[in-house]
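Entry for the shared binder. Reason: the reviewer on the internal report wants the predicted structure included alongside the sequence.
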Amino acid sequence: MRGAFDSFGRVDRHERQGLALDFALNALRRPTGTLPSLLAYGNGRSYGDSCHNDSGALVAMRARHAIIDFDPATGLIEAEAGVSLAEIIVHAAPFGYFLPVTPGTRFVTLGGAIANDVHGKNHHVRGTFGCHVESLELLRSDGVVHHCSSSENSGLFAATIGGMGLTGLVLSAKLRLMPVGSLDIEERITAFANLDGYFDLAEAADAENEYAVAWVDQLAAGASAGRGVLITGNHARNGNFETDDRAARLSVPFDLPFSMLNGLSLRLFNGAYFHAKKRKRAPHLSGYGAFFYPLDGIGDWNRLYGPAGLYQHQSVIPFDAARTVIPAMLEASRTAGHASFLTVLKRFGTVPSPGLMSFPRPGYTLTMDFPNRGAATHALLETLDRMTVAAGGRVNPYKDGRMRAQTFQAGFPEWEALETMRDPAFCSDFWRRTALTLKGRDDAGGRKDI
């Protein structure tokens, strides 16, 4: 089957070859025929080409999304890889549980959250998503389902967490959920006039709160450069476990012929947003949807970037370099004439991931979204890459669709260990562009005897 298996960035859009999950499972379990190289495809929320496999086929994982088992006494949930985080929340919330780590959208799959070892606003407390995965079932092209955990097939377990789907098909996983007093969040908003103001607040905010994240006005210059708001939160204890799984209240119903997000529109938006948030200084209750997933309420919001799509650049800069490098990155973006719709700054903690290739490391992570303007945007992103690497940081692979192989190598020297664990029948466009380029070959990764 062929279909629109796009990434969320929508830069490289065309029909791609897909395989029905049951067909792929049968072929992998009985290695007697021939298949192209494979890659699991969840809900298409990766921004770049780590979810593309144009030299092979994508396996549609959402076809199996059952909750297999849940123990309300311990919070241990077992589910198929195609289940979404939204579905897990709805199932577990009535029993007083929530995700221990959640990214900025609830519409990623369990398998995708493991493959990218996603992080959230509480990395300083809980680490990455993989820290809470107890075990997983992994089907490889040897026809065997491997039970993986920290004590069994531990090498495969570590390679699969953050391994971007390259070690085989994750069929199911057991995840330890977090008991909470409510889905509501007691939120506090603190404005800061510049980035020094944020850095002065960040460490204490992490020490005092479960969740902490900053929004930065990327376009503000001069004395206001780096202004923004620090948003902190903790679960309330009011016993509200009502879930909000309704469809998006707003949507962008069709592809726009141009980007709505330009310097003028974003200056107006950023100014209004900053002053509106600045006034909400008193602690207040926020629903979990508004706190964790504000953009989930706008269906297909990525269409706002226009027909050429968007690039997201996420980097992590070590603590000792952040006060110098992050302001310089914002200035470089302004100088290049690029406006970021959503500029987010967070502090990563020191909780280690069990994954081999996890993106977070101690430091500050900066995320910026840019409408794709071709060569000019690529030049800016190259500049941001160079600044990141020079500071001893790394660029997030599952947010990327164009970084050089050398940039990837500088941030992830562990890539060679993952390559030794990669299933030979699995590959992605990202891996060909980076790791296999470093090896000096273009390996389609297909297995010829299944």
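Summary line for the report: The chain is about 30% helix and 20% strand.
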